Amino acid sequence: MTMPRCGLVVIFSLAAAVLVGAQQAPVFRASVDIVAVDAVVMRGRTPVTGLGPADFLVTDNGVPQNVDSVSQGTMPLDITIVLDFSNSIRDDFADFVQSASGMQQLLRPEDRWRWVGIFMEARELLPMRPATDPLPPIRRPDAVPATALADTLFLALVRPGEPARRHLVIVFTDGDDSWSILDSKRLPTIADRADAVLYAVMTGTPPAPQQAERGFAEQRARRWRDSQNALFDAVRASQGSVQRLSNRAQAFARIIEEFRSAYVLRYTPVGVDTPGWHTLSVTAAEPRGLTLRARRGYERR
Questions:
Q1: Where are the domains of the chain?
Q2: What does residue 153 show for φ and ψ, rounded to 5 degrees?
Q3: Region 45-50: what's the mean pLDDT?
Q4: Cβ neighbour number for residue 234 with a 10 Å cutoff
Q5: Is 70 exceeded by the pLDDT of residue 25?
Q6: Separation between Cα atoms, residue 201 and residue 55, nearest integer Å
Q7: What pTM was estimated for this model as a whole?
């Protein structure tokens, strides 16, 4: 019996996706006997605890489903830290690394993490390892002329998940993509179907055009704005959130608290045996001013 979290098993590599990227959407498939869906329930900015199966309404392709079980905060985490090495965030780099490193004290012995860098290509700086392992120094090179944000996020998001673990991707970036092969407009679709939840800690905004260099500045601002908007759409598609706090340690703490407090709802699909994309709807039985975010679907084969 398989138990994917909206069970998304990646069946192609980054290289293959880049080669066909302009022609077709990526394919994510899963065999499903039990569907497990992440659901974040908030009241304002505070996670809601203590809910059970009867507190959720789930439909699969419009067919109501019976929620068999609900768990919260019990599954170990796999965390991918995605760090932007671009020249444009040079002044924020040391602060971010220090804040992200401080997140280690918020993790449990059973949690794991890895670090991935955004350069002109994606680089795995540290492979997935126990969160309790010492973190070696993360140093920034003198110059990184361009950054491939979309390509790197693709690599981070499509890492195959494990049924007994939850995958969180946190990207620190200003959102400017200047070198990716993958069209950033495809990020929301990838995030929507990946077995991971994407959060972004942002620094910087697209620059205002300067009169003396209007042509270049307008072009750069447009590119930056487009790639940043694609990132925001990808975050929303994966049911994560964007943090803009100047205190990045606080931003990381909020992300971990919110992600760990998410519920995992499990149900056995009934009346929806059709292969292909299944649209999910997850709502609170009694909304009572609650905000609920949950995965919007999964692929069944």
A1: 9-73+265-300, 77-258
A2: -65, -35
A3: 92
A4: 27
A5: no
A6: 31
A7: 0.85
